[in-house]
Amino acid sequence: MVKLPKAILAKTFLVVKKIDSLASKKLMGLMQYFNMATPENIIEIIKSYVGDSLLNKRDDLALLIARQIDDPNQIVQVKTNCALFTLGVWYAVGVQHDLLKTKYQSGQAIAWIRRIAIDKKALCTYPKDGAPIAGATMHYYTPGSNNNHVEFLLENPNDKFQALHGGGGRTDNAITSSTSDIRTNYYRQLREWVNPIAILEGSPDFSWNK
Fold it and tell me: Domain coordinates of the chain in residue numbers?
């Protein structure tokens, strides 16, 4: 196999919005060949934090959310933490965007997630752009209400939209996972999702140690 320059590989991400399973597998195969971060790496990081909270492995959770720029002891206490956890995971996996290197501004986490996704051409709407794929960040909300919630899809959904998903925003800022219909989160509907392949465009060589 001939190694293509990473710059050429990166250009393929610019056309990724709706991805069929075959195209997705081929692209992830190239990412793995170049040792770049993949959606599986996003899932690996999330699963390693399941069970962490303000009461259990608090310091580990704090360091992730702080992104090496905020005060871990302060930012870990921000409630709810679903969006901050998402930003921390993206930073850890190597997503490239200036906002991930910016000190947290109160109330801006969801806006930052959407801004990063838009800038990376990774923001998809549901159901227009189809169902999310494993590693995606899912955004739930009710139009006209301030009830945003984000979490990650940890496996591809079955034909009944059942899948393992997880993230923050729970009691004591706990990181949890469970299996259910991903189209709803309590009374909120799935409105948007962030394509995990597109969001990783331009990511550096990947290595991870919690």
Answer: 40-199
